[in-house]
Amino acid sequence: MRIARFSIDGNVAFGVVEGEPSDPDGPVLDIIKGHPFAEFERSGKKVPLDRVRLLPPVLPSKVVAIGRNYAEHAAEMGGGVPEVPVAFFKPSTAVTGPGDPIPYPPFSQEVHHEAELAVVIGRMCREVPRERVQDVILGYTCANDVTARDVQRAESQWARAKGFDGSCPLGPWVETELDPADLGIMCTVNGEQRQLGRTGDMVRSVADLITHITEAMTLLPGDVVLTGTPAGVGPLSVGDEVAVTIEGIGTLTNKVIKRG
Length: 260
What we know:
Order of helices and strands: EEEEEEHEEEEEEEHHEEEHEEEE
Protein name: FAA hydrolase family protein
GO molecular function, one term: metal ion binding
Keywords: Hydrolase, Metal-binding
InterPro entries: Fumarylacetoacetase-like_C, Fumarylacetoacetase_C_sf, Rv2993c-like_N
Largest sheet: 12 strands, mixed
Strand content: 35-45%
Radius of gyration: 18 Å
GO biological process, one term: carboxylic acid metabolic process
């Protein structure tokens, strides 16, 4: 099931995406009663997907991201895979949605794309055993861990490099029925392929990461875990259109603009 968050006529709602772009009338949204973090009903009121503005699929209290979880990416960054997962935060103000701009931060001269599988948490959880991880997951979406690489190199903490406004595009929706074990993941810039990998190449699985993170902190409904990026990260410039595509989910597209 694909669950989208959207706005139409000034109202914000969640809906189940039905159909495909190839359908004669295109996909539609069946608006749901309530929210997806509890039992809900479809209203039966449907609107064409092309009539709404898709929003970030969730508004997380926090985004917990994992660094160097693909061996080839760790190597291209000049190091090996860490002995334990390296976690960092992206603030809620970094989150932006499909089609929204990525403002190029004025304090950086080297902003990079990082295509990632994002895990959306469905219920409050802490100290989750590995065998129960699936019980706390709502689903999966596409993410771009946009990074000011020069700032990351210059500062021992990554708060500014990873957490600037617009540095965490998410979308286009949450896919709830998906096995994350071995999905194709791709990033293009202006239609040119930059990254191509599979989630099966992750050093630590989704279950490993959720167990590790929840040893330390409580995750809330709507929180997001970024699982790392495959090799091929590279620069973005003002005017670029960057797209993250993940098998079984869809494509998240954003354009880079000059921050005013």
